[in-house]
């Protein structure tokens, strides 16, 4: 028995490095694959780097900036329901700025910091991309184009962006805010863990929305009320069939979807009537 325990203890000691956490790695010795693409065999990657070519419309470098971006699970703790996040969710720079990004992965998995929508004549695939596998750091540089625009920055690993690892980067004044940026803008579809989404409650929501619309537009007009009743009847009949389609939508989103269906039906009816009139005229 003692001999057996000694062998087990020796095996655990010899295998200890296997269970040890990966040490932090600074990826500075990467191979240049051309077109601003650098990578190594241990999980570091830079794509779309540009350190000296001015985008069209930029007469000179407006400013030279450097930021450090952290990525990891711990940065999502302040956003309930999210799993991953960057330490900062919003950035803003002047057009034609030369920016160096030091991307640090604090987790033991793969994370990315990437931008899309850049000029493709200068950035292959229109993308600037930093990637680190496991705890480590990688740095890359790009030069922003002119103009006011808001870019999405995110991790493209499956479900990492959906679980919170995204932000927005504004050039100049930007051209608006992006949806569902943690801590910055509202989620498009807010998480809802209630158990009240039954077919009956969905029908009540539809009735309430149509009634409110009718009262705001024409008050108690009888003709409109008749059409509303017919529309509601059709909606209530179809509600059980469309319950799966509406699952996860807010009341407002359900209302907009139904109005779209009504408009589509009217358009089809008008086209059919026009076709019938033309057919009668030809005879």
Give the secondary structure arrangement, pairings included.
Layout: H1 2-19, E1 25-26, E2 31-32, E3 38-39, E4 44-47, E5 63-72, E6 85-86, E7 90-93, E8 97-105, E9 110-115, E10 128-133, E11 136-143, E12 149-154, E13 166-171, H2 199-218, H3 222-246, H4 251-282
Parallel strand pairs: 1-11, 5-8, 7-13
Antiparallel strand pairs: 2-3, 3-4, 4-10, 5-6, 8-11, 9-10, 9-12, 12-13
How would you sum up this structure, described in words?
- By secondary structure, the protein is α+β, with helices and mostly antiparallel strands.
- It folds into 2 domains: 25-171, Cupredoxins -  blue copper proteins (Immunoglobulin-like), CATH 2.60.40.420; 199-282, no CATH class.
- Helices cover 34% and strands 24% of the residues.
- The protein contains 4 helices and 13 strands.
- The strands form 2 sheets. The protein has an 8-stranded mixed β-sheet with strand order 2-3-4-10-9-12-13-7, with no helix packed on it. Strands 1-11-8-5-6 form a 5-stranded mixed β-sheet, with no helix packed on it.
- Helix 2 packs antiparallel against helix 3 (222-246) and helix 2 (199-218) packs across helix 4.
- It starts with a helix and ends with a helix.
Give the key terms.
4 helices; five-stranded mixed beta sheet; eight-stranded mixed beta sheet; 2 domains; extended; 24% strand; alpha+beta; Immunoglobulin-like; 283 residues
